Amino acid sequence: MIDSRDRRIAVVVPAAGRGRRAGGTLAKQYQLLAGRSLLRWTIEALRAHPAIGSIQLVVDGTEIDNAAGLVDGLGITRPVAGGAERQDSVRAGLEALAAGAPPERVLIHDAARPFVSLAMIDRVLAALDRVDGALPAVAVTDTLKRGAGGLVLGTVPRDGLYRAQTPQGFRFPAILEAHRRAAGKALTDDAAIAEAAGLTVALVEGDPDNFKITTPDDLVRAERRLLAGLGDCRVGTGFDVHRLGPGNGVWLGGVLIPHDGALIGHSDADVALHALTDALLGALGAGDIGLHFPPSDATWRGAASDRFLAHAVALVHARGGAVAHLDLTIICERPKVGPHRDLMRQRIAAIAGIDPDRVSVKATTTEGLGFTGRGEGIAAQACATIRLP
């Protein structure tokens, strides 16, 4: 492994594109894979390498705050705005690095390649000891055909042909100057920009698993691979009760529902989110909600319970895991949960960072029996399924 004490190394991650071929309403880098955004998976993979000192993310100018939130806690610098083309975005990232303490070497890596390995990064960095740039690539093994109009026109020799990958590595001053000179030109990748500037670029061994996510099928393939690495499947349960008192609405599942009373508790008393929080903590073997948010601590007086659930989800992510499913049952006579069920599912999914189809919200009564039947309080029970490495 390259020793991080020997040199200063940075990474630029261009992520300002829309990625329309991947489908969906969100740009592909923001779509969820196994409970986390593609962008976060990629940044985590890069962050795992001990030689990397800083990561400069480049996003659409309207997405800076959103992107910063998605990679929060990973210790990277604040994202900067990119340009209309990838080339413009990479240059913006390089200029941002130059404006601070410029690194000696820089890696430029596609946000849509979450499976970059530490060994590949090592190979790219090692090559920079002898050349200006390094390109990881995989030799073409399929037979290549030239065609037009749906007809084969000929066979293309595949000898000496490679599929380029990222991260592509460069000595920082050289690639910065090359990008400045290439402004306005249409070049396909950073190695092409280096070549146009007369820099020497070495080929290093790539990795077939380091594929770029482009289509909806690629997203499915990537999620399957990510989940395959999370083989420790765990289930936790949670149960909570809060009494009803004077008020005009109750918080349930992150949704304020009009009612002729209010749930009483140290926080906003969202019994549903509390049960879900305990279920996740139970799956992790991490105690209960009272251990993490003591009622004796004034900090949490009146706090929104989405903070508690988000904390439990963050603990799952900190262990390298993913939330697979959340199942919630609310027990009360009133208010009626049915009209608010879909909004609850959406809200819980947003807090947990998962798709709504991974959230179940059910409701039942006790047929007039017990404290819930008498309308004295509301109870909730939850089950959480998580996957860990």
CA-CA gap between termini: 23 Å
Tally of individual helices: 12
The rough form would be described as elongated
Instruction: Give me the CATH fold name of the largest domain.
Output: Spore Coat Polysaccharide Biosynthesis Protein SpsA, Chain A
Name the CATH class of the largest domain: Alpha Beta
| Cα Rg | 25 Å
DSSP helix fraction? 25-40%
What would the average pLDDT be, to the nearest integer? 93
Low-confidence stretches: 1-6
- Say which CATH homologous superfamily of the largest domain is assigned: Spore Coat Polysaccharide Biosynthesis Protein SpsA, Chain A
CATH architecture descriptor of the largest domain: Alpha-Beta Complex
Largest sheet: 8 strands, mixed
Q: What is the gist of this entry?
A:
This protein folds into two domains: 9-226, Alpha-Beta Complex (Spore Coat Polysaccharide Biosynthesis Protein SpsA, Chain A), CATH 3.90.550.10; 232-388, 2-Layer Sandwich (60s Ribosomal Protein L30, Chain: A), CATH 3.30.1330. The chain has twelve helices and 19 strands. The chain has helices at 38-47, 64-70, 86-99, 118-127, 172-181, 190-196, 216-228, 271-284, 289-292, 306-318, 341-352, 370-373, and strands at 9-15, 32-33, 36-37, 54-59, 80-81, 105-108, 133-139, 144-148, 151-156, 162-164, 168-171, 201-205, 232-245, 249-252, 255-258, 262-263, 322-331, 359-364, 377-388.
